[in-house]
Design goal:
Blueprint: E1 4-6, H1 8-11, H2 14-17, E2 21-25, E3 31-35, E4 46-50, E5 59-70, E6 76-78, E7 81-83, E8 89-92, E9 97-103, E10 106-113, E11 116-124, E12 130-139, E13 143-155, E14 169-172, E15 175-178, E16 182-185, E17 190-200, H3 202-206, E18 212-225, E19 231-238, H4 248-266, H5 271-283, E20 284-287, E21 290-293, E22 296-297, H6 304-316, H7 321-332, H8 356-371, H9 374-393, E23 400-401, E24 408-409, E25 424-425, E26 428-429, E27 436-437, H10 438-457, H11 463-479, E28 490-494, E29 505-508, H12 517-520, H13 530-540, E30 541-542, E31 545-546, H14 564-570, H15 581-590, H16 600-604, E32 617-618, E33 626-627, E34 631-632, H17 633-645
Antiparallel strand pairs: 1-9, 2-3, 3-4, 4-5, 5-6, 5-13, 7-8, 9-10, 10-11, 11-12, 12-19, 13-18, 14-15, 15-16, 16-19, 17-18, 20-21, 22-34, 23-24, 25-26, 27-28, 28-29, 30-31, 32-33
Length: 647
């Protein structure tokens, strides 16, 4: 894996250390996460964040374990870090960090106080909501280590205040049970019970959200570090509270060994692929219905569009096809009126995308093509034919095949945004893209061909599907090329205003990256030419991926910053989306363009934001600072797929 380590210049500087985040997951949707400096900058940061019935319904439990070193002289040195609503940062333990590294996907900190060096390692148990934190004396001593257990129990998207009831902490042998929900255990537990008021999260302030909360100091653990190699460890877990986990050192060793096995099984070609394999593993989770994908940490749950776009990279490029098979079968069971369920994270199953189902057709086709698993193709074939039949007949939100040309149209309901560009501001879609979007129809053409092949593999007649494919493909080639030299983003879009007697529809030729799918998919409707792809790249390409809108558009927004309305307004109006590097790489390769340097910037990004992972988004203007989720499934998956397929 790539070498991710930082010395005192980064660790001791909040601009550097507190903007680089680490993540460790439990395979269930829960996690531990924070920053290199140890400063909590998000409401989502904590050492034990527990998944609920869905991966998105998480709760924050153990917020932190603040270390303090007690010397025989009576001196006490605090190694934690907190920012307060007053603006103070206290304590400032990051100033004593001499190194942070991410080894085998696990974070490790090393503090130096003169000749005393203390190291902290952290890991989670895969398949159980359990975190282990191990502190080891590397040199010096003897000293004593106190660990202040800072707790809460709240929704991960919110905060808890001292004006409400304090968390209930019941002392049990070796520690405490907090709110009956999670247990903490370690040496020499001393209950305390005190509010720490006004903890400040600078990233939430930057996002225009409430940045402050109050934390409950439940008590402290304490242990002696007399000689190098001695350890003081703490465990925290949810679920079966009476079932104690293995010792913390064993949890760390087991996590390290598992991560090495995951990487070895993927057979990566180089250190970057090995790192991306672990990033992919972090977003694949086990749920009550089988394997699933967390769209992004720390705040997203499972979304079918993200899952299907990510499918090949996460499962087929990492030799996890058997898990992928079960995921595809489970998602097929959600089909209704020819549409794939989008998400259940909102508390109910929603069917509100035009493209997730088409990405599902693509994922099944790729699975069978890459693995030769025709049994799965045969099993899902009736459901996939039902998808096409429902689209021909017309389904929710005015999604239907236009009998005039065989292309797919969408958006018959006001206020809907059904493509992946689905942001809304105060309930109004920013980019409704009503009509016939370019990537939707590229996926439709691609899906018809893929389904026709699956049908023939099953020994059935696919003539009707091939005729639909040929008709839609011919209409695509006729309708989407624009006089500008690239493709229309939407054709037959409702005109926002037109004079009496004028056309009621128009074709939108804004330069957006959606057209890349018209050249990149296996059964793409168009063969790319270098001149066209270069025009697209000239207007959209950045070191971290294509922008969502060309900077010369009047609607371009170059910074994905501010409060929710500002950020949602910029989301698809110029913001960079790293996942689109995958389609761009495919299109460029098919156009016989050299790609030797395409991934240089995004590979360097693996050490800049979400460590070892790829961010959701970035600013459209240089220097293209990362934004959104630091650990995003489709960003990781498409980089991994594009690199592997380019070998």
């Amino acid at each position: 894996m790539i070498d991710i380590r930082f010395g005192p210049q980064v660790c001791g500087d909040l601009t550097g250390g507190a903007t680089r985040e680490w993540l460790v997951t439990d395979g269930l949707g829960g996690y531990a996460t924070g920053t290199v400096s140890g400063l909590r900058t998000r409401r989502y940061h904590g050492l034990l964040v527990v998944a609920g019935e869905t991966p998105a319904s998480r709760r924050v439990g153990l917020v932190g374990l603040d270390p303090a070193v007690l010397f025989p002289s009576g001196a006490r040195v605090r190694l934690g870090a907190h920012e307060w609503a007053s603006g103070d940062v206290d304590p400032r333990g990051f100033e004593l960090l001499e190194r942070f590294d991410l080894t085998d996907g696990l974070p490790r900190w090393r503090w130096r106080i003169g000749d005393v060096v203390i190291e902290r390692e952290l890991a989670m148990t895969h398949g159980r909501s359990c975190v282990a934190v191990v502190h080891r004396l590397v040199s010096g001593g003897p000293v004593r280590l106190d660990l202040a257990a800072v707790c809460t129990w709240r929704d991960a998207h919110g905060e808890r205040r001292a004006d409400g009831p304090a968390p209930r902490a019941e002392s049990v042998p070796g520690g405490a049970v907090v709110e009956g929900a999670f247990r903490i255990a370690g040496p020499d537990w001393t209950p305390e019970g005190q509010w720490w008021r006004g903890a400040h999260h600078r990233e939430e302030a930057a996002r225009g959200l409430n940045p402050d909360e109050d934390l409950w100091y439940a008590g402290r653990f304490s242990g002696a570090l007399e000689r190098p190699g001695d350890t003081v460890s703490v465990l925290a877990w949810a679920g079966e509270l009476v079932e104690e986990p293995p010792p913390a050192t064993e949890v760390v060793a087991a996590a390290r060994a598992r991560n090495r096995r995951v990487v070895a099984a993927a057979k990566p070609a180089d250190a970057v692929e090995a790192t991306l394999t672990l990033a992919a593993d972090a977003v694949v989770v086990d749920t009550a219905t089988g394997p699933d994908v967390v769209a992004g940490y720390p705040w997203f749950g499972a979304w079918s569009r993200d899952t299907m776009i990510s499918y090949e990279g996460l499962f087929l490029c990492t030799n996890r096809a058997s898990e992928g098979r079960e995921l595809l079968r489970a998602y097929a069971a959600t089909l209704s009126e020819g549409m794939l369920a989008n998400t259940a994270d909102t508390g109910r199953v929603e069917y509100n995308t035009v493209d997730a189902t088409l990405w599902f057709l693509h994922a099944v086709s790729r699975h069978v093509t890459v693995t030769g698993d025709t049994d799965l193709g045969d099993e899902l074939l009736p459901a996939l034919h039902g998808v096409v039949d429902a689209h021909l007949a017309g389904t929710r939100f005015g999604i239907a095949v236009d009998p005039a040309d065989g292309l797919l149209t969408q958006g018959g309901t006001p206020g809907t945004a059904l493509t992946w560009m689905d942001a809304r501001v105060y309930g109004v879609p920013v980019t409704p893209r009503t009509g016939k979007p370019v990537e939707v129809n590229a996926l439709w053409v691609n899906g018809l061909a893929g389904l026709a092949e699956l049908t023939e593999l099953a020994g059935l007649d696919a003539g009707a599907l091939w005729r639909l494919h040929e008709r839609a493909g011919a209409a695509f080639r006729d309708r989407f090329p624009a006089p500008s030299g690239w493709l229309h983003d939407v054709v037959d879009a409702p005109a926002p205003a037109y004079p009496l007697g004028g056309a009621a529809h128009h074709d939108d030729d804004l330069l957006r990256p959606n057209q890349l799918l018209a050249w990149s998919l296996p059964y793409a409707p168009l063969e790319p030419d270098e001149a066209t792809v270069r025009r697209v790249a000239a207007g959209l390409l950045t070191p971290l991926g294509p922008r969502s809108l060309s900077p010369d558009s009047p609607e371009f927004v170059g910074r994905h910053r501010g409060g929710p309305a500002e950020r949602d307004g910029a989301y698809h109006q110029g913001t960079v989306w790293p996942w689109l590097l995958g389609p761009y790489a495919d299109a460029a390769r098919r156009a016989k363009m050299p790609l030797d340097d395409l991934f240089v910037g995004i590979e360097a990004h693996l050490t800049e934001y979400g460590l070892g992972s790829v961010s959701e988004t970035a600013d459209g203007l240089a220097p293209h600072a990362a934004t959104g989720c630091p650990f995003q499934a489709w960003s990781v998956a498409e980089l991994l797929r594009a690199r592997r397929n380019g070998r």
